[in-house]
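Lab notebook, bench 4. We co-purified these components, and the gel suggests they stay together. Before we commit to crystallization screens, I want a quick structural picture of the whole thing.
Request: model the full complex, all chains together.
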Amino acid sequence: MLRRTFLGMLGATCVGASLPAGAEAAGKEFKGYPGSKGVLFDATRCIGCRKCEAACNKVNKLPAPEKSFDDLAVLDTKRRTDAKTHTVVNKYGTPEHPVFRKSQCNHCLEPACASACFVKAFKKLPNGAVVYDESVCVGCRYCMVACPFEIPTYEYDEPLTPRVMKCDMCAPRQAKGQLPGCVAECPKEALVFGTRDELIKIARERIRRNPDRYVDHLYGEDEMGGTSWLYLSGVPFNEIGMREDLGTKSAPELTAGALAAVPMVAGLWPVLLGGIYAVSKRNSKVADEERKEAVENAIAKASAEAEKTLSEALEKADVANKRQIEVEVKKAVEEALKPAEEEEAENSEKEES
Amino acid sequence: MSTPANNGPKSAFNTFNLVAGAILLVGLVLTVLRFTQGIGPVTNLDDNNPWGIWIGFDLLCGVALAAGGYTTSAACYIFGLKRFHSAVRPAILTAFLGYALVVFALQYDLGRPWRLPYPIFVSQGTTSLLFEVGLCVMLYLTVLFVEFTPAMFEWLGWKKIRKVVMKLTLVLTIFGVVLSTLHQSSLGALYTIAPSKLHPLWYSPYMPLYFFVSSIAAGMSMVIFEGSMSHKKLHRMMDEEYLKHHDGVVFGFGKAAALVLFGYFFIKVMGVAYDNNWHYLTSGYGLLFLTEILGFVALPCFLYGVGVRDRNLGLIKKASIITVLGIVFNRFNVSMVAFNYHLPASERYFPSMIEIGISVFIVTLGVVIFRFITTRMPIFFEHPDYKGDH
Ligand code: SF4
Ligand code: SF4
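Here is the predicted assembly.
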């Protein structure tokens, strides 16, 4: 598979976040580039001579160490890789039965460092190596947080141009057809270079032939989704400082859920919030309207009442008026009739006399 | 009450200014040290502990405590709780300053700070959760700035442009909530990549949710806490409108914070149950974890509840302080105490005096700028020209 294809897949992991199925596929099905190289380390063969450390120092042109690589007393203290050391050999076990273990970048199939870096400074090459490009590195050191094997190191003392430092599986030497420095120098063939598939076969074969010599586990075959470096040991791996609780999930799988949530939040949240806004606005509008209606009702009621009193008053006034008129009319009529009555009376009086 | 503009402290040489001045001066010296000597000589960071207090405090706590911005503006503009209106400006200002300082503080921690725009403009590492954090923080800082500008325009008297910005309020608020949801949770998600390094009691695939939910509680508590602080120190800058609503805001947020903390407590316990991590509770880390969720989640949740029921302002304020401390405690636990728990004590990290000094310097800087702005711009009071115009 081409590098582009892998990057495409990495891209798919993130773009595919919008389609969780896509992310899932990239996370689960990527089992390394076919024919990619790796190294098999056999702890039962390593004698702790530090030749690999010296070779690494030389081929990577790293600064000379404080104590020479011939000084094996160094092995008595636990060390880790640092900005000037891409690989270290540590001593475990008892003084009578020491076990040595070399550590360096494991060149994960789906590197945590690469998926963590926010400027894509790390790349998994088709030949298996995970390489670093200092020209874009911001120096956030998230790669160091992410790496489960505690491998990337940092030039903390560099004020202006600090770099992340780690083993690159001698990618430049591999490109020239040479072996990685450490593998080339190992006097005991504790290190074997080859395609990862071959190495797995070799390792299985060794375990099958010498079941008493090895624990039945090929470290790196599945750890953290698989690594290009593989380890055989005669003692349990946690006794030689290797964590056995890392699980088989690769880094992209661990973060796929969170990444998949991004488009969901970005897509759904505005709609929901807009909805809430609409509801709350409608609520306040309804409240407003209700208030308005109430006021109108009140006004209507008030005016109706006023009208009623008015008309009642008018009515009352009417009645009073009428009465007054009636009274007046009566009076007028009475007055008008009076003389006639008097006349009549006079007349009748005359008639009677 | 007279217009509170421009009657700042009488003398420039009060205690606050002297102490702040001294801290800023020391901070400048430390800054020079950091950028001439490199990260190594001034910090206790090393290859096993690449992230220290500058990430654990300045970034994680800074962002969580600045969550008052989106919670308050969402409450006011989206949920239509108009009584929060007077709290929006102080909250937006705090959030803006908070985020600006987070970005500023990041300059100290980054190996090559001038490359900070690289992830967005040069080489996009889209598989990284840190990329998401960076992008969201950048966008949100812009949103917060725009949301803050009306106060500035009022101060400057630029009416037209103020009006334009005011029209955008709702869109900005929704945008702000989306961005906050994303980066608040992504900060938790940053750690999902390292299950082998973070103690199982804190590691959970639900970490993004934990960070998001706790940021809401943190934001509300900060608004309460800060409101009462400002109440003491900046009372002269507050108008009746602000003061009238102050208690209402405190009760409203107190109630909401109680609910959120309750929910948070619940999902934290579910997390332990989901991974069946009960047996860790009896270890030393278990004690730490219990302290965190009983003392700094359940307790303030209870205090908030009682405070709201009894209309007890003092109790609510105490609860807010405990919650704020609790968030800091939690972020410290995730990023430093429970992180790298598998390493022997000799390889663990503890911040150097210089690292602490720079963090103190940055917080002080924030307080000084906050005071500068609130004693000049219409934050705690409505500008006389724009009364009731919202
Ligand atoms: S061992 Fe660490 S540095 Fe090496 S590829 Fe894997 S994650 Fe990256
Ligand atoms: S330190 Fe550099 S290489 Fe590592 S994650 Fe940050 S930008 Fe990428």
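The two ends of chain B are 22 Å apart (CA to CA). Worth comparing against the SEC data before the next meeting. Chain B touches chain A through 62 residues (CB under 8 Å).
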